[in-house]
Write a structure and sequence with these properties.
It is a single chain. With about 270 residues, this protein is an alpha+beta fold. It has three domains: about 90 residues, no CATH class; about 100 residues, no CATH class; about 55 residues. About 30% of the residues lie in helices and about 45% in strands. It contains four helices and 13 strands. A four-stranded antiparallel beta sheet has the order 1-2-10-9. A hairpin with a 5-residue loop joins strand 12 and strand 13. The radius of gyration is 38 Å and the shape is rod-shaped.
Length: about 270
């Protein structure tokens, strides 16, 4: 009770200028608190909007199928909408899907430094006519060899080579020692393009007869890393320099610069 009386007398004896200074300081603290609350609300609103947009885009991606576009240069582009998963808040079906990539690629469980997961299924339908050459070995045996090389451009090639022995036995034509080899080089071009607020993966090749039957692209984000650190109330030791009201040991109030070191407690809305 005595301390409360001392505080009351202290404020009672303050002049108008001092009271105005204290009032201004309290007003400034109140405004800081309001600004902090508004900033937190804005951050929560942005996160809510991003989460809703992500869920809607994933729904559209789940309903999407491969669309095939033919370019002016004759190449065919296959495109499909991309997924976006928050690795900090994976759902059960998302976790099961990502597990396949972890196993196939040997990824760490926390997917550190992984931004995109991509898979594609490719089907090839091919036919060709090879150049043949026949070398006579003896009166009953011939060596048949064939060779075919195609260059489709942009790093896409195909080489077919083979040989076998053909011989006659009584009234039959038989063969032996068949040897076939085929070497193919395929070049795929891929890009992720943002279309109407959602990423789409595009894959193209000039290799003929190649069809991309399925594409899956998953963009990974971590909302926890993107969030501001939450402020917490607590104690701290600080060093301060300022200008204001000073109360000396003789209980005399003066105005001027101040210098001090102290132990402070701050509410979370006053922490920067």
């Amino acid at each position: 009770m005595i301390y409360l009386l001392k505080i009351y007398n202290f404020f009672k004896n303050l002049d108008t200028k001092t009271l105005a200074f204290i009032g201004g300081a309290l007003l400034m603290l109140f405004m800081l608190r309001q600004c902090n609350q508004i900033s937190n609300l804005k951050q929560e609103l942005v996160q809510t909007e991003e989460s809703a947009s992500r869920s809607f885009n994933n729904y559209k991606a789940a309903q999407d199928s491969i669309r095939v576009l033919e370019l002016d240069n004759g190449n065919v582009v296959s495109t499909i909408k991309s997924y976006e998963f928050d690795i900090a808040n994976l759902e059960d079906e998302q976790e099961a899907l990502i597990k396949r990539y972890r196993k196939a690629l040997g990824l760490t469980k926390d997917l550190e430094k992984i931004n995109t997961l991509l898979s594609a299924e490719i089907k090839i339908k091919d036919s060709l006519l090879a150049d043949l050459s026949v070398t006579k070995i003896d009166s009953l045996t011939d060596l048949v060899e064939f060779n075919k090389f195609d260059d489709f451009g942009n790093g896409n090639t195909r080489l077919l080579q083979g040989s076998m022995y053909v011989y006659r036995d009584s009234n039959h034509i038989l063969y032996r020692d068949p040897n076939f080899s085929i070497s193919q080089e395929m070049s795929l071009f891929a890009a992720i393009e943002n279309v109407d607020g959602q990423d789409e993966i595009k894959i193209s090749t000039s290799y003929p007869g190649l069809t991309i039957t399925d594409i899956e692209n998953i963009n990974l984000i971590n909302t926890k890393l993107n969030q501001r650190n939450k402020k917490t109330a607590g104690w701290s030791v600080g060093f301060g320099i300022g200008y204001g009201i000073n109360l000396n040991n003789n209980q005399v109030i003066s105005y001027g610069p101040s210098l001090g070191v102290g132990l402070f407690w701050s509410p979370k809305w006053l922490r920067f």
